[in-house]
Amino acid sequence: MIHQKASKLTPKRVKKIILVLILFFLLFYFVKNIYRFIETKIYADKLETEIEVLKQKNLELRKKINGVYEDKEFIEKQAREQLNLVKDDEIVFIIKKE
Fold first, then answer.
1. Residues 79 and 85: beta-carbon distance below 8 Å
2. Using CA atoms in the order 48, 53, 54, 59, what is the torsion angle rounded to 10 degrees?
3. Which of 15, 49, 65, 94 is the most exposed place for a label (fewest CB within 10 A)?
């Protein structure tokens, strides 16, 4: 006859099971938070890089704007094309397309 040893849940065994479950929970929680931290750090680094690129573009555009204000030919061209302005001694001919 074969005797099987009955597995009883003794208070000592229950404490070990609870301790192991708590440790697994804490480990999972800790790893999850580390993952979130790394993800957030990567995102922040990406945003910082994007900010630097945008600052550089902004600087270049400011230089262009300042150059436009100083470029008389550009201002004249825009006045002619956008506002249809002419100089005092010029004659405007309007050609209608039929």
1. yes
2. 130
3. 94
Q: How many domains does the chain have?
A: 1
Q: What sign does the dihedral 14-20-23-29 (CA atoms) show?
A: negative
96: left (phi over 0), alpha (psi -120 to 50) or beta: beta
Residue range of the domain that includes 23: 11-83
Residue 34 lies in a domain: yes
Contact 49, 55 (CB under 8 A): no
Main-chain phi, psi angles of 11, to 5 degrees: -55, -35
Does residue 93 fall inside a structural domain? no
Per-residue pLDDT in tens (0 to 9) along the chain, 98 residues: 555 555 677 888 899 999 999 999 999 999 999 999 999 999 999 999 999 999 999 999 999 888 888 888 888 888 888 888 888 888 878 888 87
